[in-house]
Amino acid sequence: MDIGSFLFMLAFAYGLGVFWYDLLPGQLSSRTWRAAAYPFALMAFGEAFVPWGPTFGGIHVITALVAALIGVVIDWIIQTARHPAAVSTPESFVATPVRP
User: Which of 20, 42, 58, 94 could form a disulfide bond with 72, CB atoms 3.0-4.6 angstroms apart?
Assistant: First the structure.
Protein backbone atom coordinates (compact mmCIF):
# COMPACT_ATOMS: atom_id res chain seq x y z
CA MET A 1 0.00 0.00 0.00
CA ASP A 2 1.50 3.30 -0.98
CA ILE A 3 1.15 6.54 1.00
CA GLY A 4 -1.63 7.88 -1.20
CA SER A 5 -3.82 4.83 -0.64
CA PHE A 6 -3.11 4.97 3.09
CA LEU A 7 -4.12 8.65 3.33
CA PHE A 8 -7.21 8.05 1.20
CA MET A 9 -8.21 5.11 3.40
CA LEU A 10 -7.68 7.22 6.53
CA ALA A 11 -9.81 10.07 5.18
CA PHE A 12 -12.45 7.63 3.94
CA ALA A 13 -12.56 5.93 7.37
CA TYR A 14 -13.02 9.29 9.08
CA GLY A 15 -15.79 10.33 6.70
CA LEU A 16 -17.60 7.01 7.04
CA GLY A 17 -17.16 7.07 10.81
CA VAL A 18 -18.82 10.49 11.05
CA PHE A 19 -21.53 9.36 8.62
CA TRP A 20 -22.40 6.21 10.58
CA TYR A 21 -22.21 8.01 13.93
CA ASP A 22 -24.76 10.54 12.67
CA LEU A 23 -27.13 7.80 11.52
CA LEU A 24 -26.84 5.63 14.63
CA PRO A 25 -28.05 6.67 18.08
CA GLY A 26 -24.47 6.96 19.37
CA GLN A 27 -22.93 10.33 20.08
CA LEU A 28 -19.88 11.46 18.13
CA SER A 29 -16.81 11.50 20.33
CA SER A 30 -15.19 14.78 21.26
CA ARG A 31 -11.82 13.38 20.22
CA THR A 32 -11.52 13.88 16.49
CA TRP A 33 -9.73 10.73 15.40
CA ARG A 34 -11.80 8.39 17.55
CA ALA A 35 -14.41 8.48 14.78
CA ALA A 36 -11.81 7.03 12.40
CA ALA A 37 -9.98 4.53 14.63
CA TYR A 38 -12.31 1.52 14.64
CA PRO A 39 -13.60 2.05 11.08
CA PHE A 40 -10.00 2.28 9.84
CA ALA A 41 -8.93 -0.86 11.68
CA LEU A 42 -11.87 -2.87 10.41
CA MET A 43 -11.45 -1.49 6.89
CA ALA A 44 -7.84 -2.72 6.94
CA PHE A 45 -8.97 -6.17 8.12
CA GLY A 46 -11.76 -6.19 5.54
CA GLU A 47 -9.37 -5.28 2.74
CA ALA A 48 -7.03 -8.06 3.85
CA PHE A 49 -9.58 -10.83 4.33
CA VAL A 50 -12.76 -9.97 2.36
CA PRO A 51 -11.96 -7.66 -0.57
CA TRP A 52 -15.32 -7.60 -2.31
CA GLY A 53 -17.07 -5.14 -4.57
CA PRO A 54 -15.97 -2.37 -6.90
CA THR A 55 -12.74 -0.55 -6.16
CA PHE A 56 -12.08 3.16 -5.99
CA GLY A 57 -8.62 4.41 -5.22
CA GLY A 58 -7.50 0.88 -4.40
CA ILE A 59 -10.20 0.40 -1.76
CA HIS A 60 -13.18 -1.93 -2.17
CA VAL A 61 -16.11 0.38 -1.48
CA ILE A 62 -18.68 -2.16 -0.28
CA THR A 63 -16.14 -3.81 2.03
CA ALA A 64 -15.22 -0.37 3.39
CA LEU A 65 -18.86 0.59 4.01
CA VAL A 66 -19.69 -2.62 5.88
CA ALA A 67 -16.41 -2.63 7.82
CA ALA A 68 -16.84 1.00 8.87
CA LEU A 69 -20.39 0.30 10.05
CA ILE A 70 -19.20 -2.67 12.12
CA GLY A 71 -16.35 -0.56 13.51
CA VAL A 72 -18.71 2.23 14.58
CA VAL A 73 -21.08 -0.27 16.21
CA ILE A 74 -18.16 -1.82 18.14
CA ASP A 75 -16.97 1.63 19.25
CA TRP A 76 -20.52 2.56 20.26
CA ILE A 77 -20.83 -0.61 22.35
CA ILE A 78 -17.48 0.07 24.04
CA GLN A 79 -18.43 3.68 24.83
CA THR A 80 -21.81 2.58 26.18
CA ALA A 81 -20.29 -0.15 28.33
CA ARG A 82 -17.68 2.18 29.81
CA HIS A 83 -20.29 4.81 30.74
CA PRO A 84 -18.12 7.87 30.13
CA ALA A 85 -19.41 10.76 32.16
CA ALA A 86 -18.05 14.18 32.92
CA VAL A 87 -17.35 15.12 36.50
CA SER A 88 -20.22 17.34 37.56
CA THR A 89 -18.43 19.00 40.48
CA PRO A 90 -14.79 19.09 41.43
CA GLU A 91 -13.65 17.39 44.60
CA SER A 92 -14.30 19.52 47.66
CA PHE A 93 -11.27 18.49 49.70
CA VAL A 94 -7.58 19.03 49.14
CA ALA A 95 -5.39 15.96 49.19
CA THR A 96 -2.75 15.97 51.91
CA PRO A 97 0.60 14.36 51.37
CA VAL A 98 1.12 11.03 53.10
CA ARG A 99 3.94 11.07 55.65
CA PRO A 100 5.79 7.84 56.37
Answer: 20
Please report whether residue 37 resides in a domain. Answer: yes
Residue by residue, pLDDT tens for the chain (100 residues) are: 688 888 888 899 989 888 888 888 767 766 777 778 888 899 899 888 988 888 888 888 899 999 999 998 888 888 778 765 655 666 666 667 777 6
Side-chain-side CA neighbours of residue 49 (13 Å): 7
Distance CA 71, CA 10 (A): 14
Domain extent at residue 77: 3-82
Is 94 a domain residue?
A: no
Count of domains for the chain: 1
Give the residue from 3, 2, 29, 5 showing the smallest Cα distance to 17. Answer: 29
